[in-house]
Amino acid sequence: MDTLLSNIKIHINEKLYLKDPESSDLGKQIVSESVLLIHELGFEDFTFKKLGQKIGSNESSIYRYFENKHKLLLYLSALYWGILEYRLVFTTNSIEDPIKKLLKAIDIVTTSPENLVFSPKVNQELLREIVVREFTKSYHIKNVDAENQEGYFSIYKRIIIRIADMIGKVDPSYPYPKSLTASVVEGALHQDFLMIHFKSITDCTDQSCPLAFYQHMIHKLLNIPNEEL
Length: 229
Known about the structure:
Blueprint: H1 2-6, H2 25-41, H3 48-55, H4 59-63, H5 69-92, H6 98-110, H7 124-139, H8 144-149, H9 154-170, H10 177-197, H11 209-222
Helix pairs in contact: 2-3, 2-7, 5-6, 5-7, 5-9, 6-9, 6-11, 9-10
């Protein structure tokens, strides 16, 4: 499976970069090392100068790939959602039972990923941790509507639509499939954040808890039989 996944290219909006990072070894290094450095420093303290020092390259060479660090964060977020979407489609495509398919989808979007081989080769566990901490910073901005129109969040939104469609097949009468899906996808990230930083306001105490919590929610809202959980 790793060999198969290593040949997968996640297609990311071309407007997020000036030069495709996948087109050169330096570009790939910029992406993989930025994940490590943002995870280490946090997005606020991360700079292209520090990244250049880490990879032994001029700061100006990074600007040939990304206009600024906001665009880089958008790129990394899109990369995360693209990998997640591929896993979602790849894993659920052969599942015919709509309930099992939905529950598997909830599993995929609420748990940390296995660090499978993908191109570009980034640490996907750390990438998820960055998304947990930093993703809202990519769209809680004044220009979010313009960036949304440019398609910067299209993969993320596509995941919501895919799972909402699964909910519709399990319970066509449920009136809020997209709202429920968005709550699950965003909420899983938020629960991970709470477990690390605000433990007193979450009932989750380990990595399996967000999955169990959202399976319970889906079960109650869609009246899924107990034996399916």
